[in-house]
Design brief:
Length: about 450
């Protein structure tokens, strides 16, 4: 039997992920040691309340409320507390004491990433965070290592399982957003306060992490354009399916060229129409997937569980094995690279295509008026579909034929967001347009 040197592992937090990490460390210690070339000795688990109920039965003597002593005696600190404080202070303490850190804390990385990376680099320590984006799915390491020799053009992901679950039920079962959200809450996908998920904050945090890694550029959270799913209606989802699309909440990080021809990047989160033939359209339920377009590698797709205690523990343990191996073998490890330092461009610089639904007067010349407004802003029409609304719809009898209305669905070619915004503003105030009922971006076409 091989005798391995032990590395001391301190675990901070015993929630759904932390308790599974501890269980797997204890149950699979020999295997993990064989892979790491080091014994992984769990020296303790720091918790706030020693008597709290736990998901997993672990030896009681492992628990402590003295996080600082645990951190100072560790070679590797695994932070699974979540939130900003005290997680930030604990991670800085760990790095400053020379320990490597494994974390799954997306909120902290999204808001304080540069500070933590700088602290790690200063002391030659490593910060691993595979679990911070898309749970069990390996996406951080592929972007950070496997694709380090390539040029990433675009990262487009379904990175929030709760919203994918809701939109999928609206699409496949015809449920309303509120009903689907209630089920997501019952099943434990959505929190009691679902704001972070349904308003896109969670996905925006993940987008800032992915964009910074993919483009070797620090992309601040404040620069991520964010729209949630609360404005998505059953009618939009139904119309989308009829037109060959499915509505998904996407996090999109892409390389752009601005109006001056300079390279830049953008990151955005919003609902979008995805063609039914695109691989992301086949991501159902609470699953996550990240679609990467790279210059040399072409298209790549990473799919799987984006949350869950034991699933996310897999990502944490992968990082832990790497950290333990480096601890024994040594070497500089990886530093976060922001060498490209590209301009982070505003949403107005983004270019995509759109589906615009309008309720218009059904009179001669309306189509020409609407087309003229689009043309005036350089937005080119690709498709137009008109449905005449029966005069006696919804119990309303329109005596005057001039009051007849029609629904126009206009598909555009690619246009800048800034041009589209001006187009929609003009359509909204145009007399023959009763209302702009829906504007959705089309992605992946
Ligand atoms: N709340 C997230 C989701 C999981 O629904 O995907 C944690 O990132």
């Amino acid at each position: 039997m091989i005798e391995y040197r032990n590395v001391k592992v301190a675990l901070l937090g015993a929630g759904s992920v932390g308790s599974q990490v501890a269980r797997l460390l204890l149950e699979q210690g020999d295997d993990l040691a064989g892979r790491a070339g080091a014994g992984l000795e769990l020296t303790g688990i720091a918790v706030r309340d020693l008597d709290a109920a736990r998901d997993v039965d672990l030896p009681r003597e492992l628990y402590t409320t003295d996080a600082e002593s645990l951190i100072l005696g560790a070679d590797i600190v695994v932070e699974l507390i979540g939130g900003i404080e005290p997680a930030r202070t604990f991670i800085l303490q760990a790095l400053n004491s020379g320990a490597d850190v494994v974390t799954g804390n997306k909120a902290l990385l999204a808001s304080h990433g540069p500070e933590l990376f700088a602290a790690a680099e200063q002391v030659g320590a490593q910060l691993y965070y595979e679990a911070a984006v898309a749970g069990a799915i390996p996406i951080i390491r592929p972007l950070r290592e496997s694709l380090a020799g390539d040029r990433i053009l675009r990262v487009m992901g379904i990175v929030n399982g709760t919203t994918n679950f809701i939109l999928d039920r609206m699409d496949t079962l015809g449920e309303s957003l509120d009903d689907a959200l209630a089920i997501a809450t019952d099943l434990g996908y959505a929190e009691a306060d679902p704001t972070a998920d349904i308003e896109g904050y969670d996905a925006a945090q993940k987008a800032t992490i992915l964009a910074s890694l993919a483009f070797h550029t620090s992309v601040p959270l404040a620069a991520v354009h964010r729209e949630g799913i609360t404005g998505v209606t059953h009618a939009q989802v139904e119309a989308a399916r009829k037109a060959g699309f499915v509505v998904k909440l996407l996090a999109i990080c892409e390389r752009l060229t601005d109006d001056d021809g300079a390279d830049g990047v953008s990151a955005r989160v919003h609902p979008a129409l995805v063609p039914l033939g695109h691989p992301l359209a086949a991501v159902h339920g609470a699953k996550n997937a990240v679609f990467v377009e790279a210059e040399a590698a072409g298209d790549l797709m990473f799919y799987g569980a984006g949350a869950g205690g034991v699933e996310t523990a897999s990502a944490v343990l992968g990082d832990l094995v790497s950290a333990a191996r480096r601890h024994i073998i040594g070497g500089p490890g990886l530093a976060e690279s922001t060498h490209a330092n590209l301009r982070v461009l505003p949403m107005g610089s983004v270019s995509t295509s759109y589906q615009i639904a309008l309720d218009v007067a059904d009179q001669p010349g309306v189509l020409a008026t609407v087309a003229g407004i689009l043309a005036g802003h350089g937005v080119s029409v690709e498709t137009v579909e008109q449905t005449t609304v029966p005069k006696e719809s919804a119990g309303v009898t329109r005596a005057d034929p001039a009051e007849a209305t029609a629904t126009l669905i206009i598909g555009t070619h690619r246009a800048r967001e800034s041009s589209l915004a001006r187009t929609v503003a003009d359509l909204t105030t145009e007399a023959v347009v009763n209302s702009v009922t829906s504007v959705l971006r089309v992605e992946g076409a």
